[in-house]
Amino acid sequence: MRKLVFACISMLFIFASVFSLSASGAEEINISDRIFTISAGGDETEAEPYSKEAIESAIDLGFDAVSVKVGEDGIETKGLPEILTFAKEDFSVIIDCTEENFNDVYKVAKDYDYTYLRVRDLSTKRLVNWAHAMSNRVQVIPSYDGNVIFSAISAYNTAKDNYVNFCEFSSKNRYSVIFSEFFTKRFDGTWALMSFADKDLCGQRDDGIHGWESAISMGYKAIETDNEREFMKYLSLLEESYEHLESVYNEAKETDLSPYSVSSTKDFEKYVNLAEEMLTSENASSQLEINECIENIENSYSEFQLSEGEEENKTFSVTPMKIFWICFAIALFVSSQIYLHKKTKKK
Q1: What is the CA radius of gyration of the chain?
Q2: Would you call 65 exposed, middle or buried from its count of C-beta atoms within 10 A (0-12, 13-18, 19+)?
Q3: Three-state SS for 99?
Q4: Phi, psi for 121 (deg, rounded to 5)
Q5: Vertex 299 angle, CA 297 and 303, to 5°
Q6: Three-state secondary-structure class, residue 190
Q7: Are 90 and 63 in contact (CB under 8 A)?
Q8: pLDDT tens profile 291-303
Q9: What is this structure's pTM?
Q10: Is residue 96 within a helix (H) or strand (E), and if so which, with residue range?
């Protein structure tokens, strides 16, 4: 009997622990897991673009990759080997080339891992097919530039179906379909990339906080910037916003709603669920979206109204403490029944 009671109590604590873990908060996901950061040419504040010093500075700032242009306004193909030595497990090199020179670039880059070729004047399908015929070591980043929804969807699906990590979308038109929710809600798997290195690529948006906020809220997970230091400051502020949201969320989850009417806590529960979704999602939320969620949670406390004994259809809420006492009662009941059964049997 002692063994049975011990087993019941052990199950009780395990069960309660599982529920408390699931209810205590969200699994932590860092900004680095949500956004892939690309430095356009390296940090140029104290060095020439594409130079060793500029790339090292980008690495020190915390960027995930650097983009390097080969050809006009960039470097020569023969200068690639020195830059490609930076390509390692935690840092990638993206080489921008054209249909005219990408075969020459490939001959140099094929011996290096963590290297991507981006060919903006080649269609997604042609680039992906070419990559399949070549070495697996060099990956590609297809690009779609335009304002035709079906073509943009086709480009994304081709990239996704071929397990391409990134697909870039660009347009001069600020109101292009590639910036619409109808298109961006389809992002799932392959990370969509937006470049702010040229205004003609990002719908004339600024390479600053307003542009980055816009891209993140749309669902773009890879961002290329030529404003490296300010971008990293922005990501630090975004990380702080996430930490504030987590604090507000954890406090809200501990709030006892039982004295209040169901109707007065509906908004509160809606915003708490939204906060949980933001904290657990692999997609980043913008600072504006996070701050709005925090404000909505804090404001919804003022809407609470005491139920005053009114009859309402309240849903039974499962909490770790309720689970604990239910399991404890079951354990006592089972053990007492066994004890009484044994006593009766002896008589």
Answers
A1: 28
A2: buried
A3: coil
A4: -100, 20
A5: 105
A6: coil
A7: no
A8: 999 999 999 999 9
A9: 0.80
A10: strand 92-97
pLDDT in tens, 193-246: 999 999 999 999 999 999 999 999 999 999 999 999 999 999 999 999 999 999
Interatomic CA distance for residues 2 and 40, integer angstroms = 68
Work out the angle at residue 97's Cα, subtended by the Cα atoms of residues 93 and 234, and round it to the nearest 5 degrees: 45
**Continuous H helices in 262-312:** 262-280, 287-300
d(CA 131, CA 117): 10
Where is 214: in which H helix or E strand?
A: helix 209-218
Per-position DSSP letters for 24-75, written without gaps between them: H-PPP--HHHH-EEEEESS--SSS-TTSHHHHHHHHHHT-SEEEEEBSTTSB
In sequence order, the β-bridge partners of residue 37 are 223
Task: Compute the distance between CA of residue 225 and CA of residue 66 in angstroms, rounded to an integer.
Answer: 10
Please determine, looking at this structure, whether the domain spanning 32-235 carries the CATH number 3.20.20.190. yes
Beta-strand ranges (E) seen in 146-239 are 166-170, 191-195, 222-225
Q: Where are the domains of the chain?
A: 32-235
In 185-324, which ranges are E strands? 191-195, 222-225
Distance of alpha carbon 93 from alpha carbon 32, whole angstroms:
17
